[in-house]
Fold this protein.
Amino acid sequence: MKKFLPYAIITILTGSFIRVNSQDLVQYVQPLAGTAPSTTTAAQKHSEAGSEKNANTIPAVGLPFGMTQWTPQTRTSETKCIPPYFYKDSLINGFRGTHWISGSCMQDYGSVTIMPVTGALRTTNFATPFSHQQEIATPAYYKVELPAYHCVTEITSTARCGMMQFTLQQDDSLYLLVMPNSDRGEGALHIDAAKGEVWGYNPVHRIYQGWGNKAGFSGYFFIQFEKVPVRTGSFSEAAVFSADSIGNQKNIGVFAGFNFKKGEQLRIRIGTSFSSVNEAKRNLRAEITTWNFNPVWESAKQSWEEALSQVQVQGNSEKDKRIFYTAMYHALQHPRLFSDVDGVYPSFAGGWPLKKLADGQYYDDFSMWDIYRAQLPLLQILQPARVNQFVSSMILKGEQGGWLPIFPCWNSFTAAMIGDHVTAFIASSWAKGIRNYDIEAAYRLMRQNAFDSPNNNDYVNGKGRRALQSYLQYGYIPMEDSVPEAFHKKEQVSRTLEYAYDDYALAIVAKGLNKTADYTVLHKRAFNYKNIFDTTVGLVRGKYSDGRWYEPFNPDKREPYITEGTPRQYTFYVPQDVAGLASLMGGAKALENSLDTLFAKNEYWHGNEPGHQIPFMYNYTASPWKTQQVVRNILSEEYSDGPGGLSGNDDAGQMSAWYIFAAIGLYPVDPVSGEHLLCSPIFDKVTLQLAGNKKLQIVCHKRSAGDAYIQQVRLNGKTYQKSFVPYANIMKGGVLDIYLQSQPSAWGTAVKARPSGLTLIK
């Protein structure tokens, strides 16, 4: 049997990371960025009140793509859209082992919290003041002073485990409270005073389809104290018991009490798992074998240095570096490692029986509607070996659940958001040559989603495309279909646009596998976007089954047939055929004018994903210089290095991945095509560390610091006329020289320089 290695070692041996650069990149990361509401112009205009104005990130301590992150906790619940930490809060009520999906408006699950309390034992009202001036937050380490308790807490981690260190600043009693964060009064804990150990679990519940039903697995934890406690017990709210076990009551926990002198320290080690307490214990034994805090911290920092150094940027602006490497930090947190050190993981869509991998890792928490656009394409460049495991995980989900999930989170079907972008992700990986998985098995599952409708029970359970029958019958989803059994109901036009893209993606795979009949049908369906484009207004619009258009037409208001946006914003979501969209509008100049109107009216909303490709669409016109101008403006206006420095939900790193691509001068408008559209980088030099010890250097040549418009491009010394760079060229490595000047130029204006699409450019 293959021997499983600790996760931190695996990432090095797979070649995913390259030797760390000598510069200290972790210093640039600001984990508090995005923990306060956005203050950007676009966020103020377009975001609805509440969570849309928050990036919803947390100061997470963990390894890239780790199973569990560790964060100070200012909110106790696992409620939807409430992250564990808000910058504006003034009280800490614990330190959480969290599975919050970074930057999301979803919910935590299977979490556990440890809270230090000094003086007398208290099991309620123990939240304590803290100051941002007394906290240090890095990707690998967090520290905060709790003045009222005269206690300093420090946290570091491995991929599946955490370590905390508590230092008392005066002689005192110290109690550690251990609590599962169940909003339902569920979960259980046991404490062994003689061994100084605590173990327990917090049951996971589904969200969206099947909302509230048990997911079939839990967040398990196993905790070891470095020292034997002098007093232990359990509690439920204010009621304290001498019993060593407690479960299925409201606000439960166990406590361990110690007597300490000033300066004395207590360290604890926490193993986590989604499989069992025993697996949590195995994970801890494999990943943390010392009681010395510093080596664990140094190892975690080294892992982040290796990850961050895959993109090395050089320039004069320290602020830009802080924003950039904070974006890298956010973009490298998910998808989440779900398998244990020995390959065990809970089966998809039910949790039981436990499964065991023969090789590799199993991942979950794919915020797919968001991350297929830029975050996963970034990883397809930087870590293709890991992407293979992502795709393999998708295939396992489809085989175990009977259907390929649309939006797999909480290791369950959700049918959250719209589209079928697991298909787009698999297709983009395969088209780029990332193929270490069973493509025939993947194709069967993708085809099932595209052609078949599940039975009613399966459909209600979140399986299959929403409103597929209407889409197949009409070539669009008519207004009469309200799309029941979906978290996002209606939104017929947005669904039509996104299904058309997914059909195009699957058509690419069908063609490559010589499935000619499927290819013919899917290729035709990729043009379904035309069916909901109203040429009389030049925008997409709701449409009834008899061909009538929805009235009234409000191009710049949120409409029921559009997902989280307006008809004008969503009109530009045709990444597979921008030239075809331009033709409907009246030609490339008409597309340019439509883009001009969007930006002139301040209707571009960067805080939501469907528009992320829009700034780069000028590359499909005779004015690519406008992409260079608009992207520069967005980088400057919609990102900063303060707590409110993100313009909307970061959504598992998508908002941050956009910044990374735009800042280095590339963006994948159509991830399946592999074409990365060029714009002007904000850094003087960028080095991408690629698989096989290859490097791509992007070098900017300027006459003055303010130069922002591309004058010419050279690839490996040869003049390069295209306004995009294919994935294959990126992965070969080399040198991309970009010469900038102060005024727009004729570079990239020729028709033959433009990116491709389904419609041939004339």
Remarks:
- The two ends are 58 Å apart (CA to CA).
- The domain at 62-312 is CATH 2.70.98.10 (Beta-galactosidase; Chain A, domain 5).
- Confidence is low (pLDDT under 50) at residues 1-21.
